[in-house]
Amino acid sequence: MEAEAALESAWELSPTFDVAYNLGNTKYQMKKHREAAQHLSYALRNWPLIKAAARLKPIAEQRLAESRSQVGAVTVTVSAAGAEVLVDGKAMGKAPLEGEIFVEPGEHQVEARLEAYVPANQTVRVAKGGTAEVTLAMAPVQREAQEVASGANAEAGASTPGARAGAPVAEPSPAAPVEPVPPPPGRSWVPVIALGVASAVGLGVGIGTTVASNNANSEARAQQGKIFGAGGGCLASPSFVGQCTELHRAAESAGRLGDVALGSYIASGALATAALTYALWPTRSAEKATAVLVLPEPRGDGISFVMVSAW
Protein backbone atom coordinates (compact mmCIF):
# COMPACT_ATOMS: atom_id res chain seq x y z
CA MET A 1 0.00 0.00 0.00
CA GLU A 2 2.87 2.40 0.77
CA ALA A 3 4.39 1.73 -2.66
CA GLU A 4 1.02 2.36 -4.30
CA ALA A 5 0.56 5.66 -2.46
CA ALA A 6 4.11 6.79 -3.29
CA LEU A 7 3.64 5.99 -6.99
CA GLU A 8 0.29 7.77 -7.10
CA SER A 9 1.92 10.86 -5.60
CA ALA A 10 4.70 10.63 -8.18
CA TRP A 11 2.06 10.30 -10.93
CA GLU A 12 0.35 13.50 -9.77
CA LEU A 13 3.66 15.36 -9.91
CA SER A 14 5.12 13.85 -13.08
CA PRO A 15 2.86 11.72 -15.34
CA THR A 16 5.66 10.07 -17.33
CA PHE A 17 5.81 6.63 -18.95
CA ASP A 18 8.09 5.13 -16.28
CA VAL A 19 5.80 6.19 -13.42
CA ALA A 20 2.81 4.86 -15.38
CA TYR A 21 4.63 1.55 -15.98
CA ASN A 22 5.51 1.06 -12.31
CA LEU A 23 2.07 2.16 -11.12
CA GLY A 24 0.35 -0.10 -13.67
CA ASN A 25 2.41 -3.10 -12.52
CA THR A 26 1.54 -2.34 -8.89
CA LYS A 27 -2.19 -2.13 -9.69
CA TYR A 28 -1.92 -5.37 -11.73
CA GLN A 29 -0.39 -7.23 -8.79
CA MET A 30 -3.16 -5.88 -6.53
CA LYS A 31 -5.83 -7.15 -9.00
CA LYS A 32 -7.02 -3.60 -9.68
CA HIS A 33 -7.41 -4.31 -13.39
CA ARG A 34 -9.20 -1.12 -14.45
CA GLU A 35 -6.50 1.16 -13.02
CA ALA A 36 -3.75 -1.19 -14.22
CA ALA A 37 -5.11 -1.06 -17.77
CA GLN A 38 -5.37 2.75 -17.68
CA HIS A 39 -1.74 3.26 -16.56
CA LEU A 40 -0.19 0.51 -18.68
CA SER A 41 -2.03 1.84 -21.74
CA TYR A 42 -0.60 5.32 -21.08
CA ALA A 43 2.90 3.89 -20.62
CA LEU A 44 2.75 2.00 -23.93
CA ARG A 45 1.46 5.06 -25.83
CA ASN A 46 4.43 7.07 -24.55
CA TRP A 47 7.10 4.33 -24.60
CA PRO A 48 10.54 5.72 -25.59
CA LEU A 49 12.59 4.33 -28.48
CA ILE A 50 15.44 3.16 -26.26
CA LYS A 51 16.93 -0.34 -26.37
CA ALA A 52 17.29 -0.53 -22.58
CA ALA A 53 13.53 -0.02 -22.16
CA ALA A 54 12.55 -2.30 -25.06
CA ARG A 55 13.03 -5.42 -22.90
CA LEU A 56 10.28 -4.26 -20.53
CA LYS A 57 7.72 -3.48 -23.21
CA PRO A 58 6.48 -7.09 -23.72
CA ILE A 59 5.75 -7.30 -19.98
CA ALA A 60 3.62 -4.16 -20.16
CA GLU A 61 1.79 -5.43 -23.25
CA GLN A 62 1.04 -8.82 -21.66
CA ARG A 63 -0.25 -7.33 -18.41
CA LEU A 64 -2.34 -4.77 -20.29
CA ALA A 65 -3.99 -7.56 -22.30
CA GLU A 66 -4.76 -9.53 -19.13
CA SER A 67 -6.20 -6.48 -17.34
CA ARG A 68 -8.10 -5.42 -20.47
CA SER A 69 -9.92 -8.74 -20.59
CA GLN A 70 -11.31 -8.17 -17.08
CA VAL A 71 -12.82 -4.70 -17.68
CA GLY A 72 -14.60 -2.69 -20.37
CA ALA A 73 -13.44 0.27 -22.45
CA VAL A 74 -15.09 3.43 -23.78
CA THR A 75 -13.87 5.53 -26.70
CA VAL A 76 -15.18 9.09 -26.47
CA THR A 77 -15.39 11.57 -29.36
CA VAL A 78 -16.41 15.16 -28.60
CA SER A 79 -17.24 17.79 -31.22
CA ALA A 80 -15.70 20.63 -29.17
CA ALA A 81 -11.95 20.44 -28.63
CA GLY A 82 -10.85 21.19 -25.08
CA ALA A 83 -14.05 19.94 -23.48
CA GLU A 84 -13.61 18.14 -20.17
CA VAL A 85 -14.73 14.52 -20.35
CA LEU A 86 -16.25 12.91 -17.25
CA VAL A 87 -17.28 9.32 -16.61
CA ASP A 88 -19.67 8.84 -13.70
CA GLY A 89 -18.78 12.37 -12.56
CA LYS A 90 -15.01 11.75 -12.51
CA ALA A 91 -12.79 13.83 -14.81
CA MET A 92 -10.89 11.75 -17.38
CA GLY A 93 -9.11 14.46 -19.37
CA LYS A 94 -9.84 16.96 -22.11
CA ALA A 95 -10.97 16.23 -25.66
CA PRO A 96 -9.58 14.87 -27.83
CA LEU A 97 -8.59 12.00 -25.53
CA GLU A 98 -5.49 10.01 -26.48
CA GLY A 99 -6.78 6.53 -25.78
CA GLU A 100 -9.58 4.47 -24.32
CA ILE A 101 -11.18 5.02 -20.92
CA PHE A 102 -11.30 1.77 -18.96
CA VAL A 103 -14.36 1.12 -16.79
CA GLU A 104 -15.87 -1.70 -14.80
CA PRO A 105 -18.44 -3.75 -16.74
CA GLY A 106 -21.93 -2.26 -16.52
CA GLU A 107 -23.74 1.03 -17.12
CA HIS A 108 -21.89 4.36 -17.07
CA GLN A 109 -22.70 8.04 -17.61
CA VAL A 110 -20.34 9.88 -20.01
CA GLU A 111 -20.46 13.68 -20.06
CA ALA A 112 -18.61 16.57 -21.74
CA ARG A 113 -18.41 20.11 -20.36
CA LEU A 114 -16.96 23.29 -21.81
CA GLU A 115 -17.52 26.95 -21.06
CA ALA A 116 -19.88 28.67 -23.55
CA TYR A 117 -21.22 25.25 -24.65
CA VAL A 118 -24.25 23.26 -23.58
CA PRO A 119 -23.12 20.13 -21.67
CA ALA A 120 -23.65 16.85 -23.51
CA ASN A 121 -24.05 13.42 -21.95
CA GLN A 122 -24.83 9.85 -22.87
CA THR A 123 -25.48 6.66 -20.92
CA VAL A 124 -23.66 3.58 -22.18
CA ARG A 125 -23.48 -0.07 -21.15
CA VAL A 126 -20.13 -1.84 -21.47
CA ALA A 127 -19.57 -5.60 -21.35
CA LYS A 128 -16.55 -7.32 -19.79
CA GLY A 129 -13.73 -7.25 -22.32
CA GLY A 130 -15.84 -5.14 -24.70
CA THR A 131 -15.63 -1.61 -26.08
CA ALA A 132 -18.35 1.02 -26.43
CA GLU A 133 -18.17 4.13 -28.61
CA VAL A 134 -19.61 7.43 -27.43
CA THR A 135 -20.00 10.56 -29.60
CA LEU A 136 -20.98 13.80 -27.87
CA ALA A 137 -22.10 16.78 -29.98
CA MET A 138 -21.88 20.08 -28.10
CA ALA A 139 -23.79 23.22 -29.15
CA PRO A 140 -22.58 26.72 -28.27
CA VAL A 141 -24.63 28.52 -25.63
CA GLN A 142 -24.41 31.82 -27.59
CA ARG A 143 -26.42 30.46 -30.53
CA GLU A 144 -29.30 29.35 -28.31
CA ALA A 145 -29.22 32.66 -26.38
CA GLN A 146 -29.45 34.63 -29.62
CA GLU A 147 -32.41 32.56 -30.79
CA VAL A 148 -34.22 33.07 -27.47
CA ALA A 149 -33.43 36.81 -27.50
CA SER A 150 -34.65 37.19 -31.10
CA GLY A 151 -37.89 35.43 -30.26
CA ALA A 152 -38.40 37.59 -27.18
CA ASN A 153 -37.71 40.80 -29.14
CA ALA A 154 -40.11 39.82 -31.91
CA GLU A 155 -42.82 39.02 -29.39
CA ALA A 156 -42.23 42.28 -27.52
CA GLY A 157 -42.32 44.26 -30.77
CA ALA A 158 -45.65 42.73 -31.81
CA SER A 159 -47.30 43.30 -28.44
CA THR A 160 -45.94 46.72 -27.47
CA PRO A 161 -47.70 49.74 -29.04
CA GLY A 162 -45.40 52.14 -30.87
CA ALA A 163 -42.49 49.77 -30.86
CA ARG A 164 -39.96 50.47 -33.62
CA ALA A 165 -38.83 47.74 -35.93
CA GLY A 166 -35.10 47.39 -36.44
CA ALA A 167 -34.15 48.72 -33.00
CA PRO A 168 -30.39 48.54 -32.42
CA VAL A 169 -29.18 45.49 -30.57
CA ALA A 170 -26.51 45.94 -27.92
CA GLU A 171 -23.22 44.48 -29.00
CA PRO A 172 -21.49 42.05 -26.66
CA SER A 173 -18.65 43.43 -24.59
CA PRO A 174 -15.21 42.74 -26.00
CA ALA A 175 -13.37 39.74 -24.64
CA ALA A 176 -10.70 40.29 -22.06
CA PRO A 177 -7.17 40.43 -23.44
CA VAL A 178 -5.23 37.19 -23.26
CA GLU A 179 -1.96 37.42 -21.42
CA PRO A 180 0.99 36.21 -23.49
CA VAL A 181 2.64 33.00 -22.41
CA PRO A 182 6.06 33.79 -20.93
CA PRO A 183 9.02 32.26 -22.77
CA PRO A 184 10.70 29.25 -21.19
CA PRO A 185 13.57 30.05 -18.79
CA GLY A 186 17.03 30.21 -20.30
CA ARG A 187 19.85 27.78 -19.63
CA SER A 188 21.47 27.99 -16.19
CA TRP A 189 25.25 28.43 -16.39
CA VAL A 190 25.84 27.53 -12.74
CA PRO A 191 26.55 23.84 -13.55
CA VAL A 192 29.05 24.86 -16.26
CA ILE A 193 30.90 27.14 -13.85
CA ALA A 194 30.89 24.53 -11.08
CA LEU A 195 32.12 21.77 -13.40
CA GLY A 196 34.77 24.07 -14.85
CA VAL A 197 36.08 25.01 -11.40
CA ALA A 198 36.15 21.35 -10.34
CA SER A 199 38.02 20.45 -13.55
CA ALA A 200 40.59 23.19 -12.90
CA VAL A 201 41.08 21.97 -9.34
CA GLY A 202 41.59 18.41 -10.56
CA LEU A 203 44.11 19.62 -13.14
CA GLY A 204 45.98 21.58 -10.47
CA VAL A 205 46.11 18.55 -8.18
CA GLY A 206 47.37 16.44 -11.07
CA ILE A 207 50.16 18.91 -11.90
CA GLY A 208 51.18 19.23 -8.25
CA THR A 209 51.32 15.50 -7.64
CA THR A 210 53.21 15.00 -10.92
CA VAL A 211 55.92 17.42 -9.76
CA ALA A 212 56.05 15.71 -6.35
CA SER A 213 56.27 12.29 -8.03
CA ASN A 214 59.16 13.46 -10.24
CA ASN A 215 60.99 14.82 -7.18
CA ALA A 216 60.52 11.52 -5.36
CA ASN A 217 61.85 9.64 -8.41
CA SER A 218 64.89 11.92 -8.55
CA GLU A 219 65.53 11.34 -4.86
CA ALA A 220 65.25 7.56 -5.33
CA ARG A 221 67.67 7.61 -8.27
CA ALA A 222 70.15 9.72 -6.30
CA GLN A 223 69.96 7.33 -3.35
CA GLN A 224 70.43 4.36 -5.66
CA GLY A 225 73.49 6.03 -7.23
CA LYS A 226 75.05 6.53 -3.79
CA ILE A 227 74.57 2.85 -2.90
CA PHE A 228 76.01 1.59 -6.19
CA GLY A 229 78.84 4.12 -6.07
CA ALA A 230 79.89 2.75 -2.70
CA GLY A 231 79.98 -0.76 -4.16
CA GLY A 232 76.90 -1.93 -2.29
CA GLY A 233 73.43 -3.20 -3.11
CA CYS A 234 70.08 -3.76 -1.46
CA LEU A 235 69.96 -7.56 -1.85
CA ALA A 236 73.06 -8.88 -0.13
CA SER A 237 74.63 -5.86 1.61
CA PRO A 238 73.52 -5.59 5.26
CA SER A 239 75.66 -2.52 5.74
CA PHE A 240 73.37 -0.51 3.42
CA VAL A 241 70.06 -1.34 5.18
CA GLY A 242 69.32 2.24 6.18
CA GLN A 243 70.03 3.64 2.74
CA CYS A 244 68.02 0.88 1.05
CA THR A 245 65.09 1.65 3.33
CA GLU A 246 65.18 5.30 2.24
CA LEU A 247 65.41 4.15 -1.39
CA HIS A 248 62.33 1.94 -1.07
CA ARG A 249 60.41 4.69 0.73
CA ALA A 250 61.20 7.20 -2.01
CA ALA A 251 60.21 4.75 -4.75
CA GLU A 252 56.86 3.93 -3.08
CA SER A 253 56.13 7.62 -2.58
CA ALA A 254 56.82 8.30 -6.26
CA GLY A 255 54.46 5.48 -7.27
CA ARG A 256 51.63 6.69 -5.04
CA LEU A 257 51.98 10.27 -6.23
CA GLY A 258 51.99 9.07 -9.83
CA ASP A 259 48.72 7.20 -9.29
CA VAL A 260 47.11 10.26 -7.69
CA ALA A 261 48.26 12.43 -10.59
CA LEU A 262 46.78 10.01 -13.15
CA GLY A 263 43.45 9.90 -11.32
CA SER A 264 43.36 13.70 -11.08
CA TYR A 265 43.98 14.07 -14.82
CA ILE A 266 41.18 11.59 -15.62
CA ALA A 267 38.73 13.33 -13.26
CA SER A 268 39.66 16.74 -14.66
CA GLY A 269 39.05 15.55 -18.23
CA ALA A 270 35.70 13.98 -17.33
CA LEU A 271 34.52 17.15 -15.58
CA ALA A 272 35.62 19.33 -18.49
CA THR A 273 33.79 17.06 -20.94
CA ALA A 274 30.62 17.22 -18.81
CA ALA A 275 30.77 21.03 -18.70
CA LEU A 276 31.28 21.28 -22.47
CA THR A 277 28.44 18.81 -23.15
CA TYR A 278 26.04 20.72 -20.92
CA ALA A 279 26.99 24.05 -22.51
CA LEU A 280 26.58 22.84 -26.11
CA TRP A 281 23.56 20.54 -25.67
CA PRO A 282 20.35 22.02 -27.19
CA THR A 283 17.91 23.38 -24.63
CA ARG A 284 14.49 21.75 -24.28
CA SER A 285 11.24 23.04 -22.84
CA ALA A 286 10.15 22.13 -19.34
CA GLU A 287 7.50 19.77 -20.73
CA LYS A 288 10.22 17.76 -22.50
CA ALA A 289 12.92 17.98 -19.89
CA THR A 290 15.51 15.21 -19.93
CA ALA A 291 15.23 12.75 -17.08
CA VAL A 292 17.04 9.63 -15.94
CA LEU A 293 14.51 6.86 -15.42
CA VAL A 294 14.92 3.78 -13.24
CA LEU A 295 12.72 0.85 -14.28
CA PRO A 296 12.39 -2.50 -12.48
CA GLU A 297 12.89 -5.62 -14.62
CA PRO A 298 11.35 -8.83 -13.21
CA ARG A 299 13.60 -11.92 -13.55
CA GLY A 300 13.35 -15.55 -12.57
CA ASP A 301 15.86 -15.19 -9.70
CA GLY A 302 14.66 -11.81 -8.41
CA ILE A 303 14.46 -8.28 -9.83
CA SER A 304 16.97 -5.98 -11.47
CA PHE A 305 16.85 -2.30 -12.42
CA VAL A 306 17.41 -0.60 -15.78
CA MET A 307 18.46 3.05 -16.01
CA VAL A 308 17.04 4.87 -19.07
CA SER A 309 17.68 8.43 -20.24
CA ALA A 310 15.88 10.06 -23.22
CA TRP A 311 17.76 12.87 -25.02
From TrEMBL:
This is PEGA domain-containing protein. Residues 72-140 form the PEGA domain. It comes from the Bacteria. The lineage of its organism: Bacteria, Pseudomonadati, Myxococcota, Polyangia, Polyangiales. Signal peptide: none annotated. Gene3D superfamilies: Tetratricopeptide repeat domain. It comes from Sorangium cellulosum. Residues 148-182 are annotated as: Disordered.
